[in-house]
Fold:
Amino acid sequence: MLMINFMKKVKAVHCGHKTYLSGEIIAFGQTRMFNLPIIGGEPGFCLDCYQKMAIQCPWCGQMILPGDPITLYKPEEKPVLLTFPEQSKIFSLIPTRLIGCGGKGCCESKTDIVGIMSTKGVPHVSPGAYDFLELNTIPHVAVSR
Ligand SMILES: [Zn+2]
Ligand SMILES: [Zn+2]
Structure:
């Protein structure tokens, strides 16, 4: 069994920063304990880089980190927060679909989880979901507001 020492800093493969493997991520006034995903013995990115990758759910305001399940609702399917979070992301423009979280009370059904957030700023959306979401122009690029 591979033992992982959470008290020692290691170098993340992609960003090259030294990092603990587990720690708090603070974004949008929220704090979340986070374990870095380990692939091949080392993390890809450090905790600071993950923090910078955090986006905010436009419907409930919760932070979304790479590895989190996501929904792609249309604005007319959900009531938006009073102030649209600046760190929310638009997945597609026609139809307009926004990257939302898979949280209870926000994601209405398990079948609404259509992908997983990645470290590249765009989620991996399951190919089968494209028809269902009426997404017919591929590729879709997530753009910041
Ligand atoms: Zn880093
Ligand atoms: Zn949400």
Q: What stands out?
A: The pocket of zinc ion (ligand 2) is lined by residues 57, 59-60, 62, 100-101, 103, 106 (CB under 6 Å). The longest strand covers residues 22-27. The mean pLDDT is 88. The chain has two domains: 7-53, 55-145.
